[in-house]
Amino acid sequence: MKIGELARRSGRSAHTLRYYERIGLLPPPRRDGSGQRDYDASVLVWLAFLERLRATGMPIREMLDYANLRAQGDATAQNRCALLEAHRERVREHMTLLQASLEVLDTKIEGYQTAHHDRTTET
C-alpha cells in the first residue's frame, strides 16, 4: 500500500511514517517501479504495537532498541522479552501513582462539593 493509504489506515501522518522509517522504527518498504514506497499490510500490526508502546510512555530510544532487536530475528526473543518486562513494570508503577493521584483528586472534589452543598442549604 502507498504511504497515503498507510497514513489513513494507521492514523499517522505520512510525515510521521517517513520519520519512523528514517530513524529505524519502520523497516524500509519496497519501492514500486516509480520509486514510491509500497508498504506490506503487516506494517499496520507493527504500527499498532508501536502506538501501544508510545501510549504507555516508552521512550523512542527504547522503541528503537526493540525494533533493532526485532529486525535481528528470533535469536533476540529473550532480550525483547526482558525489555518489555522492564517497561511493563514501569507502566505498573505509573498506574499505581496515577490511581493514588486520582483518589486524592476525588477526595478534594468531594470536599468542594460537600462544602458547596452545605452553603446552599443554609437558611
Explain the overall architecture.
The structure is a single chain. The chain is mainly alpha-helical. It is built from 5 helices and 2 strands. It has helices at residues 3-10, 14-23, 43-55, 60-71, 77-121, and strands spanning 30-31, 37-38. A two-stranded antiparallel sheet has the order 1-2. A hairpin with a 5-residue loop joins strand 1 and strand 2. The longest helix has 45 residues, at 77-121. The termini are far apart.
Distance between the termini: 70 Å
The SS-based structural class is mainly alpha
Oligomer classification: single chain
Put simply, the count of helices is 5
Count the E strands: 2
Low-confidence stretches: none
Secondary-structure element string: HHEEHHH
User: What's the Cα radius of gyration?
Assistant: 22 Å
Q: Fraction of residues in helices?
A: over 70%
Order of strands across the biggest sheet?
Answer: 1-2
| C-alpha geometry | elongated
Average the pLDDT over all residues and give the rounded result.
93
Largest sheet: 2 strands, antiparallel
